[in-house]
Amino acid sequence: MVKTVDARGLSCPQPVLMTLDEIKAGTADEIIVMVDSDTSKENVSRAATSKGWTVAGISAQGDVYNITIKKG
Amino acid sequence: MKGVKNIFAGRWGIIGVGIFIGILAPLLQKWGNPSNMGICVACFERDIAGAVGLHRADVVQYIRPEIIGFVLGSLVAAYLFREYRPRLGSAPIVRFVLGVFAMIGALVFLGCPWRAALRLAGGDGNAILGLLGLIVGIWIGTLFLKEGYNLGRTQKTHHTAGWMLPLFMVGLLGLLLVFPQIPGEAKSGVLLYSLKGPGSMHAPLFLSLAVGLLIGFIAQRSRFCTMGAIRDFVLFRQMHLLSGFIALIVTAFAVNFAVGQFHPGFEQQPVAHTMHVWNFAGMMLSGLAYCLAGGCPGRQLFLAGEGDGDAALFVMGMIVGAGFAHNFGLASSPAGVGPYGIPALIVGFLVCLFIGFTMRKRII
């Protein structure tokens, strides 16, 4: 199941907290996290990797990054 | 340069930045800055507040070029790597208030987290109490974060809005050049200059500015943050930022040792007092305020440099807070806490707890 986390306009640690909450919820095997700063992009990727998830791709749309993370 | 991989974002990048700051900060002391105060964001903003007359404590008045460099160095890095993103609107007034009380707490302890690290690296045992207070304050902040505390989303804004704090810094630099220090004079044009005390001790202007610019540049790239270091470890058991902070302390210790600036003990430490409870409580208040505001004083300057208008408000809050701290007798001195320092800490805690408990609305 694909879930989306909209963390645009939020600064860390909120994007990471929201991503980890979604991971902990356990219902998603793929999460698309929307952030709008490079710092958040790096932090979310780092946090997902530390939880054993993989960063499958990052696409930029204007000022927004869509980070796709996958379980395992 | 957008496509260039950010080498500072990795483990060795952040450690490298910690080492770099750990070398330069003690050297700034060698070159003229006060002891165990090679870089202190809180103290230096307090000195700026004094130089422009927001307070009249004549021993702490000087426009510190390092602070100007931090903001402008970050601005340059942000533009070079296309990370300049003008934004604001995430509870600006709350950030200002947090900045005020962060400064009051810092001036009860006598330093920001950077200086707490440098004091420890210089042998000042009182810094241990400060660092413990910092950790406890940030830990309290993480409890609020876990309960949903947030300051809301920012909005994109005009480039001009993001330029306000950098331009303020350019203005300060302009004042420093137009009204340079006159030996033996406490005033030059509109600026006040300390003739004695820590405010009278400083490295040469352009050296301070150059170090500030360099640190601002690499800190923007690496997202160096002393509060984030502790917060991320407490919240996520993540060592990334913490490894940079530890690298700073270890390197500064080694450099201090090498150049003869390491003097272990609790008594007679430079610009420090030995009231352990209040060293602890001052930094606890600051730590809580930094955590609620999302960054240590240095990080707020770097964020302001990359266009974050809310971080700029926090910086202005700290500068105004320094005015209150000295005008109201809240700031400590080597003799101990100021006459109204303790009541101010209590008010600060109440304000921070009020903010922490009440700003927990769901993010929309």
Describe the structure.
The complex is a heterodimer of chains A (72) and B (364). By secondary structure, chain A is of the alpha+beta class. Chain A has a single domain (2-70), classed as Translation Initiation Factor IF3 (2-Layer Sandwich). Chain A is 35% helix and 36% strand. Chain A is built from 2 helices and 4 strands. Chain A has helices at residues 14-25, 38-50; strands at residues 2-6, 30-35, 54-61, 64-70. Chain A has a 4-stranded mixed beta sheet, covered by helices on one side. In chain A, α1 runs parallel beside α2 (38-50). Chain A starts with a strand and ends with a strand. The model of chain A has no long low-confidence stretch (mean pLDDT 94). By secondary structure, chain B is an all-alpha fold. Chain B has one domain (8-358). Chain B is 62% helix and 2% strand. Chain B has helices at 11-30, 41-51, 65-80, 92-109, 113-121, 126-146, 159-178, 205-222, 226-236, 240-258, 276-293, 297-305, 309-327, 341-358; strands at residues 87-88, 155-156, 187-188, 191-192. In chain B, a hairpin with a 2-residue loop joins β3 and β4. In chain B, α5 runs antiparallel to α6 (126-146). Chain B is globular and about 55 Å long. The relative contact order of chain B is 0.24. The A-B interface holds A 8-14, 16-18, 20, 36-39, 42, 46-47, 50, 63 and B 6, 9, 81, 83, 85, 87, 90, 145-146, 150, 153-156, 223, 228, 231-232, 235-236, 238, 240, 294, 308, 363.
Spatial ordering of strands, largest sheet of chain A: 1-2-4-3
Query: What portion of residues of chain B belong to β-strands?
Result: under 5%
Count the domains of chain B: 1
- Residue-averaged pLDDT of chain A: 94
Calculate Rg of chain B over CA atoms. Answer: 19 Å
Can you summarize the main beta sheet of chain A? Answer: 4 strands, mixed
